[in-house]
Write a structure and sequence with these properties.
The protein contains 8 helices and 11 strands. By secondary structure, the chain is α/β, with parallel strands linked by helices. It folds into 2 domains: 127 residues, Rossmann fold (3-Layer(aba) Sandwich), CATH 3.40.50; 94 residues, Arc Repressor Mutant, subunit A (Orthogonal Bundle), CATH 1.10.10.10. Helix 2 packs parallel to helix 3, helix 6 crosses helix 7 and helix 6 packs across helix 8.
């Protein structure tokens, strides 16, 4: 496994106490850490820092976390960056909004540093294992390369956030097999991440918008499958 020093974390929150707490605990764990107290500053820092993970508050001045995440996801530089929301807001519509713009996880405050460090460590362990899989899936004019996290269709590169990529790759490795939402949550998000079933629906819809509406079929009352004639 790679050293934690290979992983860079950007913490974004307008609460100075939370920034200090997370910077201390992450640095103690061996991660390289930078902080920002608003979304605009976070985007500027991220362009130079290119973090492996961004911990992002929702309610912030100048630019809120949802808009910050949206802008980050529009930049191919951050296609492989995990974005985890940290927020005191637990309403379902806020969680859905976070996943709509490309969040990978959603953690409610108050923050428990030990539990958060454990979740981050599990996330990177899972990432290390998946990156070692250098399979390339080619179906028609769609090519998915796990080693470089790239997707091309008709020779045109399509930028997918990490979870969208992993979901698409998983489905294409199991063509014509139907998976229910719980199976997809367990295989893509893992047992350590607690997200609602609608998260899968949001990610499927975003993938369809980018690679085509007809590739992933909805099996009513069951789940989804990647359709190969």
């Amino acid at each position: 496994m790679s050293s934690k020093k290979n992983f860079k974390v950007l913490v974004v929150d307008d609460d100075a106490d939370i920034l200090e707490l997370l910077q201390y605990n992450l640095s103690k764990e061996g991660y390289e850490v930078k902080v920002a107290d608003n979304g605009k500053k976070a985007i500027e820092i991220a362009k130079d820092f290119v973090p492996s993970l961004i911990l992002l508050d929702v309610m912030m001045p100048q630019m809120d976390g949802v808009e910050t995440c949206r802008q980050l996801r529009e930049n191919p530089l951050f296609a492989g960056t995990y974005i985890l929301f940290l927020t005191a807001r637990s309403e379902e519509y806020t969680e859905i909004a976070a996943f709509e713009v490309g969040a990978d996880d959603y953690i409610t405050k108050p923050i428990k540093p030990r539990a958060l460090m454990s979740r981050i460590s599990a996330l990177f362990r899972r990432d290390n294992k998946s990156v070692k899989n250098n399979d390339v899936v080619s179906i028609g004019d769609l090519v998915i390369d796990k080693s470089s996290y790239t997707v091309t269709k008709e020779g045109r590169e399509i930028v997918l956030p990490k979870k969208e990529f992993e979901l698409l790759f998983f489905l294409t490795q199991n063509p014509n097999k139907v998976f229910n939402r719980q199976e997809l949550l367990q295989n893509i998000w893992g047992m350590d991440v607690y997200v609602i079933d609608r998260t899968v629906d949001v990610h499927i819809r975003k993938i369809r918008e980018k690679v085509g509406e007809d590739l992933i079929k909805t099996i009513k009352g069951v789940g989804y499958k990647f359709d190969v004639d």
